[in-house]
Amino acid sequence: QVQLVESGGGLVQPGGSLRLSCAASGFIFSGNTMGWYRQAPGKQRELVASIASGGEPYYEVSVKDRFTISRDNAKNMVYLQMNSLKPEDTAVYYCKAIAYAHWGQGTQVTVSS
Predict the structure, then answer these.
(1) Among candidate residues 111, 108, 64, the one with its CA nearest the CA of residue 85
(2) Model pLDDT for residues 81-104, shown as the tens digit of each residue
(3) Cα–Cα dist 14/57, whole Å
(4) What's the burial of 87, exposed, middle or buried (CB within 10 Å: 0-12/13-18/19+)?
(5) If you ran DSSP here, which 8-state letter would residue 26 be given?
(6) CA distance 70 to 30
(7) Rounded CA gap, 60 and 77, in Å?
(8) For residues 80 and 67, is the Cβ–Cβ distance under 8 A?
(9) Are 34 and 51 in contact (CB under 8 A)?
(10) How many CB atoms within 10 Å of residue 107?
(11) Residue 24 — pLDDT band, cuts 50, 70, 90?
């Protein structure tokens, strides 16, 4: 079955960086668009970035030029490099194959001084 395991979250000061990783299994990873979502307390889950099977990225406007999504089809991994982090980036971050309904457990990112 589809499994998604996120890692790499933590506590970071404003302006800092984190790299999130997601290990995927149970489906044909290379043929699927992958996305990173986040959910802040009291807010709806939102798509932050996605990357198509061919590598074409999409970014939500608030993270464009700060976040970079990438994938390694040989390892079934998707990454989110987050730079210049802001307190409003604080959320639980999830990866997901766009075509599937399954979610991982998420990884907490907290940006605070």
Answers:
(1) 111
(2) 999 999 999 999 999 999 999 999
(3) 25
(4) exposed
(5) S
(6) 12
(7) 21
(8) yes
(9) yes
(10) 22
(11) very high
